[in-house]
Structures are given as C-alpha cells and as structure tokens.
Amino acid sequence: MFISGLGAYIAPVVDIGWAVEQGLYPAGDVERHGLASAAVAGDLPAPEMALYAAQDALKRCGWSPAEVDLLLYASTWHQGPEGWVPYSHLQRHLVGGHVLATEVRQGCNGMFGALELAVCYLRAEPDRRAALLVAADNFGTPMLDRWRMGPGFIVGDAAAAVILTKQQGFARLLSVCSGTIPEAEGLHRGTEPLFPPGITVGRGVDFEARSEEYRLGEIARNVGTLQMIRVQQELIRVAKRSLSEAGVGINQITRVAFMNYSREAVEQRCMAALMLPASKSTWNFGRTIGHCGASDQFISLDELVKTGQLVSGDHMLLIGTGPGVVTSSAVVKILDSPPWAGDQEG
Fold first, then answer.
1. Domains, the chain, ranges and CATH?
2. Which of 334, 172, 325 minimizes the C-alpha distance to 245?
3. Are 276 and 315 in contact (CB under 8 A)?
4. Residues 33-50, buried b or exposed e (16+ Cβ, 10 A)?
5. Measured between alpha carbons, how far is residue 119 from residues 95, 129, 130, 192 in Å?
6. For the chain, what is the radius of gyration of the CA atoms?
7. Of 17, 122, 108, nearest to 70 (Cα)?
C-alpha cells in the first residue's frame, strides 16, 4: 500500500495571547502547556475544508477523481444539518456518485480506522486502485469552548486528505494497527446519561469535566488509575506492534506524530514512553494549530514532507487515540521526495 497524495487545509491561526487577554484561556497555562495558537476557521464549513484538502491531494499526485474507488470521511464534531452526510459534499463536487462513500465515526482516531478499512477494501478486489481518506472539523460552534475543551489541549479547525493506492507512490504504508480498552469508555462520557443525547438538549462538551468525573468515579470504586495506566500501556503496545509488523526498529524512526497536545502530554505519554527524544516529535508544529480532531497526524505528515523534513529513506511513526478507548499506530516510509516537496504554499 502506498501514499500517492497528501493534502491539508489549515485555517488562519489565532494567538494564545489574544485568548488570554479575552479571558478565554488561563494565563498560567501558557507556560505550563506551551501551546502557542489555534487555527480558527470562522464560518467556513468543515466539508468545504475537506474538499480543499482532497482537491490538493489529487492535484499533487495527478490522479483523476474518477479513479477513486472509495471515499472515507472522518470527523469528530458536527458537520452540517442533522440527517445530512458530509461525504456527499465531496461526492457532488469532486469524485462523483460511482464511488462507495461513508463516514468513519471513531473520534480523533478516525483516520487510522479509515486507513485499516481502506487497505482491506482495496485488497478485496484486483481492480480497485485508490481510496480517498479525509478528515475535517470546525469546532467554532456555541456548544463547545475551543480554549477549554479538555485537559492540556485547545482545538483547531483544519482538514487532511490522503490518497491511498496499490500503485507506486512517494511513500509506503508499512503497517497500521489498533487496540481498544472498552473498560475505559467512561473516560470520554463521564457521568453524562446516554439519553437524551446531551447536544440535543443544549448541553455543551467539556472533556476536562468528564475526565474528572471518570477519575473520581474510579477512585470511589477503589480502582484508582488502573484504567488510565492500561490506556497508556496499550498505546505503547500498539506502537511497538506496528513497528514490528513494519520490520522497523525504534532507532530507525525519523519523526513521530502524536496528538497536538501540550508539551508534557506529548513528551510523557508518547516520546519518553518510546524512549525517543522530544526533538523527533511534531509538537513544535502542532502547538501552533491546536488539536485538529482526526487530522493531527496527517497534517503533520504533510507539513514534514512539504518542508523537506522527511526525505527518501526516512520513517515516520504516527500514533493516535480516541474515545472507546481506541489507540492506533502506523508506520510510513518515504520512498521519494514528491514534486511538491519544498513548496511552502502547496
């Protein structure tokens, strides 16, 4: 399996200092977490950002939209009118109606789930050649506070697109795998009832509050931090499994893309656990755009290739996690620098 094209759309960024001045972000957290800014798209819809990223990916690799056999759309937040599906926007304006299309609802881990599904779909029939995977979110809605959504992160608006193909591309997908800790599903639910869905009765989203509710509940049941430890262990186990399947040693990894979280979260939960220096992470880039839902790791991959920070022979490790709790990892090897590498505007 190869990656023939990448695309990304990142909204204009808003400085963290502005958020502090407006009383939207705690001043003390600036030094503590090291976050610099967040991408803010205003009223630009997420499906429109997904379309921009997808058009970019197809243009870069020279594939025709008609050659796409599968369209998978990953998202974490509301995309448009209820009862409407966002991938239909890309079908109408890009790939047409011949392609099988559906949405992947796996939270911030959605692009990894899409990768696994796309690999299986393309391999199932000899004449299937390419899959278009996209992720997009605009979090700027009344029921969500981007500056205080969760512990150690702020959210940004962006989109990413990947062209996965069985034909030669500039990079090869060496492995992708996942693991789940369903016993910890309450981490993202807290004590909120399942019905009626909170968003339908005007209840906003606050993952920090939910995490605290979950933690206190676990302590009350004398479980302590056992589930959180299991989540961390599974994250590292899945990363090591993907490296093993790829036949790549940890010392061969050039760069690592994790979630666009705070400095301490990236260093402690990912880099130190893998015994890799923080300098190999994509945190310095991620801190400038915020946590962009399911797009994080693939926007980082795009950025590193585009700016020439990944070249022929380099390996990149991508690690993610999402509600469930699911963790995933993928290993990508750069085979050649694509023609658009070095294009700071492309």
1. 2-168 (3.40.47.10), 174-334 (3.40.47.10)
2. 172
3. no
4. bbbbbbbbbeebebbbbb
5. 19, 10, 9, 36
6. 19
7. 122
The neighbouring-strand residues paired with 136 are: 159
Residue type, 58: L
> In this structure, what token pair is assigned to residue 35?
């976050």
Sheet with 158-165: strands ordered across: 100-104, 70-74, 130-137, 158-165, 2-10, 171-180, 326-334, 315-322, 253-257
- DSSP state string for 247-301: T--GGGEEEEE--S--HHHIIIIIITTTT--GGGBSHHHHTTT-B-GGGHHHHHH
Nearest Cα to 112, choosing from 323, 318, 335?
318
How do the pLDDT tens digits run along the chain, 346 residues long?
999 999 999 999 999 999 999 999 999 999 999 999 999 999 999 999 999 999 999 999 999 999 999 999 999 999 999 999 999 999 999 999 999 999 999 999 999 999 999 999 999 999 999 999 999 999 999 989 999 987 899 999 999 999 999 999 999 999 999 999 988 888 888 888 899 988 888 888 887 788 788 777 765 565 556 777 888 899 999 999 999 999 999 999 999 999 999 999 999 999 999 999 999 999 999 999 999 999 999 999 999 999 999 999 999 999 999 998 999 999 999 999 999 997 655 4
